[in-house]
Amino acid sequence: MGGDRHRGTEVTRATPGASGRPGTGQSVVVIGGGLAGMAAAARLAKRGHRVMLLHRTERLGADWRPDHPDGPGRLPEVLTLPAPWRDLFKKSGRILPAELARAGLDLVPAPPARHLFADGAELDLGGDRGEQFHRMAAAYGEPVAASWRDLVDSLEPVWHQLRQLGLETSLLSGRQLRAHRRTLMWGRTVADLAAAQPHPHLRALVEASAWRQGHDPVRAPAFVASRLNVERTFGRWMIVDDRGRPAGSERLLDLLEARLATRGVELVRCDRPIRFRGSARHPDGRSLAAGPVRDLLPSGPRPDAVILTTGLHDPVATYGLHTRAARRVRTLAPVLRPRRTSGPAPAEGAPAGFPAMSPGHGVAETVDHAARTVSWATTDRILVHDWGAATPDPGAGPGWDGPGSWLRRLPVRLGERLYSAGPWGRGGDDLAGVLMSAALATYDAHLDLTGQDTHPSNKDQ
Q1: Are the beta carbons of 46 and 16 closer than 8 angstroms?
Q2: Do both 315 and 190 map to the same domain?
C-alpha cells in the first residue's frame, strides 16, 4: 500500500489483491477504524461499492487490540460465538476456514473454563448440555445439576428472541418488544435471576454473565444471562497455529485488515472534525462537510452514504447531530472496561488456580468470581482482564440501566443515507453485537443505494 498527504490528512491507498479490486459502484464513507468500521467497509466493498475508511488511530481495530506490542488486548482468548466472524468473512470474500488455513491458523475447541468461587471451591465447566450436567452432578449432586440444566435450557428461547431484536434484525421501536416481554423476563435483572438459584456457585455463574461484559448485575436485564446458553450451545473456541499452539484472537483482526486491502478499501488517516451540512435534526449522509474527504472521493464532491462507527456516545458533540436518537443516547453511562495486564507464565509451571498445561494443550481460562477477574494462560503467557478494577469507557458502549435503556441505544438508521454501527447500537456492546451491527448497517446502506435487499431473511437475494 502507498501513502500521501492531503491538506494535513494522511491517505493510504490499498493495493487490490488478486481476488478483488476497488469497487465501481457508489461511494460510501465509513467513519471509524475500529472493528465495526472494518467489518462494514469489507462487506460494502465486496458488494461493489467504492469504500473510504476514515480512521484516527495508527492501527486499525485499535479498540480491540493491545495498547502496545507485548500488551493484552480486549479480545477474549476464548471465543464463544464464532458465527459472526464466519459470516463476516463469507460475506466479504474468502470464507474464514480457508483464510485461517492460508495463514497457517485454525479455529479449534478450547478446554473447559475453571471457575474459582469465594469459598475456595473450583469447578471446570464447559462442553455440551450432557457434559455440563455430569460435571455439576459430580460437584453438587443431581438436584443442583438439574436446576442449572433447566436454567440454561430456559434461556434458549431468550437468545433466539434477542437475535431478532437488534442482532440479526434491526430493533426499531418498542412495538417489537411488547409481544415478547414474558420471554425476555421483562422487569427482572441478572441479579434477580441469580438470587433464584439454589446454590451460591450457580448464583455466581449467573452474575458473571453480566459483570464479564462490564455490566452491573443489579442493573442488567435478566435476558443478558442468555450468554450462558450461547456458550453451552455454540461451544468455546480458540485460534491456534499449525503446531496447535494458541495464536491469539487478535489474529482475526490481522486477517480482517488484510481483507480490506484485498477488497480495495481506501484508508484515510484523518483527525479533523466531521460535520454534516443541512438540518441537524434531519441529517443526510450525502451532506458530509469534511473537506479532505469530499476532495478525495472518487465520485466527486460528496459521498452517496456514510456509516458512523466511532464517537457515538455523543453524536451531538461529535458530529453535530440533533436528532431524538442522538440526544437520547447521551443519557446513557458508558459500560465498564477491565484493567488489562499480561506477563510471562511462571517458569515453575501453571500458576495457582490454573489447570496444568502442556505444549499444545490450548488456552486455560480461569474465572475468579470473588476477585472478578478472567485470566487466560498458555505455556508461555498469562493475560488478565480485571473487572474488579474496571473503569467506564465511552468507546466500549453503554452500560445497561434496566430494559428501558435498550431503546436509548442508537438505531441503525440515523438519517437519510446515514447509518450507525458499533457498541452503542441496539444489538449490544459485546463482540457479537459489534460485528452484527456492521452487517445491519451494510444491509440498509446497500438497499438504499441499489434497491437490492441483501438481508439473509430475503430468500430471493
Answers
A1: no
A2: no
The count of other CB atoms within 10 Å of the CB of residue 119 is 10
Q: What is the CATH number of the domain that holds 313?
A: 3.50.50.60
**Taking Cα atoms as reference points, which of 182, 181, 207 lies closest to residue 193?**
207
Direct distance between the N- and C-terminal alpha carbons of the chain, in angstroms, rounded to an integer? 34
Of 163, 161, 164, 125, nearest to 145 (Cα)?
125
Alpha-carbon Rg for the chain, nearest whole angstrom, is 22
Condensed to tens digits (0 to 9), the pLDDT of residues 202-232 reads: 999 999 999 999 999 999 999 999 999 999 9
C-alpha cell at 78: 476464548
Residues 319 and 413 in one domain: yes
**What's at 29, amino acid-wise?**
V
Q: What is the mean pLDDT of each run of 10 residues along the chain (461 residues)?
A: 49 48 78 97 97 92 84 88 97 98 97 97 92 97 98 98 96 96 98 98 99 98 98 96 93 97 93 84 84 57 91 96 96 97 71 49 91 94 95 97 97 97 97 97 97 79 49
Residues whose CB falls within 8 Å of the CB of residue 18, separated by 6 or more in sequence, listed in order: 262
Where among 222, 256, 288 does a domain terminate? 222
Whether the CB-CB separation of 38 and 29 falls below 8 Å is answered with no
Residue keyed to cell 454473565: 209
Give the three-class secondary structure for 225: helix
Q: Which residues neighbour 352 within 8 Å (Cβ) at sequence distance 6 or greater? A: none
**Per-residue model confidence (pLDDT) at position 353:** 53
Question: How far apart, in whole angstroms, are the C-alpha atoms of residue 340 and residue 407?
Answer: 31
Alpha helices in 179-271 (DSSP H): 190-195, 200-211, 227-234, 251-262
Going from the C-alpha of 177 to that of each of 156, 257, 293, 326, 412, the distances in angstroms are: 17, 36, 39, 21, 17
- Is there a single domain that holds both residue 250 and residue 200? no
In a domain, 149, yes or no: yes
Q: 208, 55 in Cβ contact below 8 A?
A: no
Cα distance between residue 247 and residue 388, in whole Å: 27
Q: What cell does 378 get?
A: 498458555
Q: pTM of this prediction?
A: 0.92
Domain range for 162 is 131-222
| The pLDDT of residue 290 | 57
